[in-house]
Amino acid sequence: MTDILLVYKKNFEAVHDISLSKVTQVLEQSSALRGGMRIDVRARERVRRADFIGRDLVIVLGGDGTLTSISHNIDADTPVMGVNSHPREDDSNGSFGFYMDSNIDTFEEDLNTALNGNAIVNELPRLQAIIDSTSGNRFTTDPAMNDVLIANTHQYAPSKYHMRRGEEKCDQQSSGLLFSTWLGQGAWLRKAAGKDDLQQLLERVEHGQQSTHYFVMARDIAQNEREGMPWSWMDWTDESTTITSDMHRGYVVPDGWDEVHFNRGATITVNAEAPTLRLLTFRRSMTARLDDLTSSD
Q1: How far is 189 from 253, CA to CA, in rounded Å?
Q2: Measured between alpha carbons, how far is 147 from 255 in angstroms, rounded to an integer?
Q3: Is the pLDDT score of 187 beyond 90?
Q4: Least packed by Cβ within 10 Å: which of 35, 131, 144, 198?
């Protein structure tokens, strides 16, 4: 028996309720035709880690925010299928749905493709931050599909830290450090970085590095502090980046959701060694979808 979990976006917009009704109807029909499937339906706000264990397929109905908000619960072996419940093509107020390659109109066909094992499998790298407190405690953040922000909890104050990569060191203050996966650049990095600076950085990217490297950028850093060490402002790297906080209090925010706080003296190490996410697409790979997005900029 195929074990499926459907996670949906719940709010007061009727369009999402209509989409949920259509998707569950297709799932019930598919279950009848295939001789039975176990199908559990959960609102995004009510899912827990245990809900995802042992699933053959997780279907996320909503937009990119719905997926990123629950993706940290999903392990590397579980296929995930994103379904856009409110496409922007139909409504300017809808979701762009970068990670959602299916929609209500294509869902039945896409579901069969997924269940038959014929979908495109995208192994997405994810970032993690490891926080070591001055008292000796260690905490690893949830894996991030898009980005990780490290900043002062008081946004009116600068983020001060000592930065280290291998044997190289530097002291910085900025409005925070932004780390991004290759695919996550479309979420925030491309908006936070200047077009020319980002283009110079992209020219350094070599074939095959997208699954092992990540971007790091110090936001709003002074021009004269950018010189000397390229990675002290913006870089594309596969090495771990470690900072020691010189802030009274700061936080780490993976994918714009849960905040993990730390105090002065804490050490935070960011790398791309978190478990990958197995995302299914049906017409184009995620790399091709990003190419389409960036070529239209």
Answers
A1: 15
A2: 5
A3: no
A4: 35
pLDDT computed for residue 198 by the predictor: 84
- Identity at 178, one-letter amino acid code: L
pLDDT tens figures, 261-282: 999 999 999 999 999 999 999 9
Does residue 228 surpass a pLDDT of 70? Answer: no
Torsion angles phi and psi, residue 119, rounded to 5: -75, 160
Q: What is the pLDDT of residue 191?
A: 85
In order of start, what are the domains of the chain with their CATH numbers?
A: 2-118 (3.40.50.10330), 126-274 (2.60.200.30)
Report how far residue 63's alpha carbon sits from residue 68's, in angstroms, rounded to the nearest whole number. 9
Scan for tokens 């407190």, then name that residue.
133
- Tokens matching residue 45: 């706000």
Note the residue count of the chain: 297
Contact 281, 120 (CB under 8 A): yes
